[in-house]
Write a structure and sequence with these properties.
With about 50 residues, this protein is mainly α. It has helices at about 1-20, 25-50. The protein is elongated and about 40 Å long. The two termini are about 15 Å apart.
Amino acid sequence: MRALVLFFFSIVFFPTIFLLDAFGFQEEAIEISTHIAAFFSGMLVWELVL
């Protein structure tokens, strides 16, 4: 499951961040990357708890 989520993020969100940054939407790129970092932090805590 974790591999599937990582694959999805690498295919969809990371290119989106780079494209937003390239076309001048730096604030949106920062916001999206912050949400991704928060998600991965939560996922790490979830695995440590289980």
